[in-house]
Amino acid sequence: MHRHGVRQMRTGWADGPEFVTQCPIRPGGSYTYRFTIQGQEGTLWWHAHSSWLRATVYGALIIRPKEGDSYPFQKPKRETALLLGEWWNANPIDVVRQATRTGAAPNVSDAYTINGQPGDLYNCSSKDTLIVPVDSGETNLLRVVNSGLNQQLFFKVANHKLTVVGADASYVKPFTTSVLMLGPGQTTDVLITADQPPTRYYIAARAYASAQGAPFDNTTTTAILEYKSAPCPAKGAKIKPVMPTMPAFNDTATATAFTTSFRSPRQVPVPTNIDHNLFFTVGLGLNNCPPGASRSTCQGPNGTRFTASMNNASFVLPSNFSLLQAHQQGIPGVFTTDFPANPPVQFDYTGNVSRSLWQPIRGTKLYTLKYGETVQLVLQGTSIFTAENHPIHLHGYDFYIIAEGFGNFNPSRDTTKFNLVDPPLRNTASVPVGGWAVIRFVADNPGVWLLHCHLDVHITWGLAMAFLVENGVSELQTLEAPPADLPVC
Ligand code: C2O
Fold first, then answer.
1. Mind listing the pLDDT tens digit for each residue in 365-405?
2. Cα-to-centroid distance, 169 and ligand 1 (Å)
3. In this structure, are residues 15 and 395 in contact, taking their beta carbons and an 8 Å threshold?
């Protein structure tokens, strides 16, 4: 079980991803996660971090201001957490197993949900549609979480403006918008004022599908914002809620306008003397069918198998020990520390990529950071097979997103766009389709921390790596000892 976004200072053992910070909890077994939440306020969430189990095992983790403190905005009358989920009419574990067997892309989901309910636009589900009550004039807080597996989502409330006040448990400089876009893993807190004629309005979410020609679930999930003073409907009948106009599925302009609106509330201490200047490509790949393999195992495009990588390394989890155990106990042979700081070969990342660069190398490669070192990381999307937006999540850290853009990152041109004054602090960055994002952080939390695409289909294919952050000198700069009930493999 992972608490997504909780920094877990020195308590990496409580982070949760299987084979990274712990072995999985066996059926019937138990493990008590012990950790402290410090300096974070807003909305995070928890989810299973084993295969695709998080499809149905997740929930909100809400951190309110300390007793006696208040929000840095008008106190909302009510608060509602809205968890956007993804549903298969099948066991999601069977869906991913089939994909791993055949080498093809997994089936897309059959529905999206809001707090577990698909809503009125699907067959037979309208009697359980989530109702969010409001009173005319009041201002409420919606805590929106994309807990879906594989799809970025647009989110709207018909006829209502949304004021964004926080994201990933950090406050932001408030801005007003009619539409949100969240990648899986991201959270957005918004204020909504009930200033419209008292009736019923749909709250709706549907795909932002940035990959050209790739199949996706094109359905729409809804809940209902219901004014309590709405006139009583005639017997039995219900007033049909007003439906918002959703952005087109491929509306990258709207997604970009949203993601580039984020600022920290005030000037923030962005690291400037950079110890590690890193450049990671993030993208898909296609492996040729292994010699002698049955064609039924190579059902990817043109008889291949799907894969994915960062810097041409396709990440493989260990199976006997967690990476954190192997690191802390010095167990050899579990991982190597040769994850490259730069792509092994430079190429036109977002152009027409030569087929010879489509097959990454599998491995369990980590990148080592010393305690307290500063990192700048350029996340560069590739157009291998297809360009696509990637929600990249770093465990154990928040980072500043100092710039994003399209095409290949160009240091001489693009460093001038860096926001070193008030960039947003996040735990998951939306790397634009066919583009890049630049993040910065200080390695102040010792342990082993996964960096991965939060589309579970991509992590399955290997779109991940991990940072090994060494201990500092004092006890407060050192990973705690593992708990006695830490599961064994
Ligand atoms: Cu939301 Cu690796 O996790």
1. 999 999 999 999 999 999 999 999 999 999 999 999 999 99
2. 15
3. yes
Separation of CA 191 from chain center: 22
Give the list of residues 6+ apart from residue 265 with CB closer than 8 angstroms, or none. 72, 171, 172, 173, 422
Record the pTM. Answer: 0.97
C-beta of residue 369 within 8 angstroms of C-beta of residue 470? yes
pLDDT value at residue 274:
98
Contact 182, 188 (CB under 8 A): yes
Question: Looking at the predicted structure, is the pLDDT value of residue 238 above 80?
Answer: no
| DSSP three-state, residue 80 | strand
The closest residue, in CA terms, to atom 3 on ligand 1 is 4
The structure tokens 């950079």 sit at 274
- Which of 178, 14, 153, 161 has its CA nearest to residue 84? 153
| Chain center to CA of 77 | 29
The pairing of strands 390-394 and 304-310 is unpaired
Q: CB within 6 Å of ligand 1 — which residues?
A: 2, 4, 17, 47, 49, 185, 393, 395, 450, 452, 454
Report pLDDT digits (tens) over 3-29: 999 999 999 999 999 999 999 999 999
Give the residue whose CA is nearest to atom 1 of ligand 1: 4
What are the Cα distances from residue 70, in Å, to 10, 65, 67, 139?
28, 6, 8, 16
For 271-310, what is each residue's pLDDT tens digit?
999 999 999 999 999 999 999 999 999 999 999 999 999 9
Q: How large is the greatest C-alpha to C-alpha distance in the chain, in angstroms?
A: 72
CB atoms within 10 A of CB 253: 10
Residue type at position 174 = P
Q: Tell me the backbone φ, ψ of residue 239, rounded to 5 degrees.
A: -65, 130
